[in-house]
Amino acid sequence: MTTAYTVVRGTRASQALAFAALVLVALAASLPLWGESSWMRDFVQIACYFIFAMMWNLLAGYGGMVSIGQQAFFGLGGYVMLALGNFAGVNPFLSVLLGALVAGLIAIPVSRIAFRLQGGYFAIGTWVIAEVFRLSVSNISAVGGGSGTTLTALRGIDKATRESTTYWMALACVVASIALVYLFLRSKQGLALLAIRDNEVAARSQGIAVDRMKLAVYAVAAFGAGLAGALYFVGNLRISPDAAFSVNWTAFAIFMVIIGGIGRIEGPLVGALIFWALNKLFSDYGSGYLIGLGLLAIVVTIYFKQGLWGYAQQRWGWTLFPTARRLVLTQAAASSPKPRPGAVPAAAAKPASATA
Fold first, then answer.
1. Fewest Cβ atoms closer than 10 Å to its Cβ: which of 136, 200, 244, 315?
2. Which domain covers residue 131, as residue numbers?
3. How many domains does the chain have?
């Protein structure tokens, strides 16, 4: 018998769940043809929550860079989208992607300031940077100053077309975000990011370009946050500095990731659905609603330390997007070599004294 090792990433359960997800995406793509407009608005809201939480999870859960200032890029994406649509005459739906791109590019010089800080100082520093963005935009009268303004570039588009186009764009952004993050985490660069998260000094000693990888992840997370912000405000039709650069966005992202499971692709998805449902049902209760969110987060961190999806993964083996590698031992019968023509069998070749 010979022993062989096989690297396995997926399981039959993950393959079945992936097939179900494809069917669900195909069904969701047809929603504007038969669904209600309120359903599409709800999906766009969930999509924005999920994309923003996914980018925070990539930055903190996989990269170890805990930021509480990602709302800087969320608001920046929204304002760039509005400025291009209202003043430059660019199609607002195209401006969504351009706003995300600008947010990702601005993250590069911002990172030179943020990366001078470590640990808790990095988290507080990113919050300060977000406040600088908020105060700067509040003093720009062209975009409404502190009171904000309305997206007027969509006035010539009827409501049904606007809602269906926003919905399809949100669905495409969700699928693209999941696919890109999943493929990245399965690559060598994804392993390098996990090594940096676990021990930055050890990763650097193994030849990993730590600074380059952290900059790339920070820029990608900013791009995703800008995409979520631009998508949110193109559906909301109005933007203001307090709404766009509110620290609540990052607080809610942290809540969603912790509830669903940090360091897992499925975690932000589960957390976004739970947060949207709670927001839909209990947001009218004011401060009591926020207290309830805090208590729920405390309960989950105490009894489900790896989040709800992490608990389900450990107990039942559910993995929708498997990224870990597992070595599976397989045994097979060793094939004996065929005897050469004219060769004497081993038993016949023994001397008489050996067989006596």
1. 315
2. 14-259
3. 1
